Amino acid sequence: MVHGPLVWAVALAIFAGGVFFVGNALWNLLAGMKSRSWPSTRGTITAAELEEKSDSDGTTYRARVVYEYRTNRGVYSSSRVFFGDWLATNASRAAAARRVKKYPVGSTVTVFHDPARPSRTVLEPGLNGYFWFEIAFGLVVAFGAVFGILNV
Q1: Which of 63, 66, 89, 98 makes an SS bond possible with 47, Cβ 3.0 to 4.6 Å?
Q2: Phi and psi (nearest 5°) for 19?
Q3: Digit-coded pLDDT (tens) for 18-53
């Protein structure tokens, strides 16, 4: 079947979105694995709050955790808890609240930092379950676009 340029453009855009998610998941995988061997330092939680966003699709919640730490290169601030945490938006208020509760303001935490780039940090090194969601979502989207264009 012959498809018009709009169908191809939409399919390509959807496929590219899927490839982006897979690529980002692989980057998170590599960074998470590397972070297991990074040096650590002590840090302090400076903010921990539950962010709530409502729209026509409903309400989502996200834990926003900010910490400050010092290395031999200076004082830094970060908000990355684990690689891929930008996906950690929860439909469950309780799940996001648990993360906020885990990191109370003023508490001391262990900060793992990239020795080559001390501003690149995590509080939870290694892999997180969001990696699997990200890679599965990306593959479904990418293959869905290919399947769609072949069967439309």
Answers
A1: 66
A2: -65, -40
A3: 888 888 888 888 899 999 999 999 999 999 999 998
